[in-house]
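Dear support,

I submitted the protein below through the web form. The confirmation email said the job was done, but the results page showed an empty box. After a refresh the structure appeared. I'm attaching both so you can tell me whether what I see now is the final result or a partial one.
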Amino acid sequence: MRHDSRLSRMLHVMIHMGHHDGVMTSDMIAGMLDANPVVIRRTMAGLREQGYVRSEKGHGGGWTLAKPLEELTLLDIYHAVGEPSVFAVGPAYDMPGCLIEQAVNATLKDVFAEAEQLLLSRFASVTLADIARDFPNR
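What the results page shows now:
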């Protein structure tokens, strides 16, 4: 099963941006992530719409942070990249008339909703600067 890595990839990019002097072009970012520059521009546009990055067009243009890493949380970036699903597992709908499947799904929905709220609460408490402080130790 393929995982949605948009959050992780954009956290990676933004922390690099926080430690990079000057702008980073879509081509630079794409090379760093082994991705297509068009995909990078589309994803970065969502971050720009939220006011987390700025872009400058033309020769010498590129992307820069609009806010310091200390003011950006995991939750901010999670929302900006489209709130990807945080779980790879979920209810099954193979036999919608089965009372057992209904009971299983109702329980899973409740448990997943509670777990997701805990995760998002934790996302809100972690800044990109917190992550950036850790990388020199690796």
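Response: this is the final, complete result; the empty box was a page-load delay. The beta strands are 53-56, 62-65.
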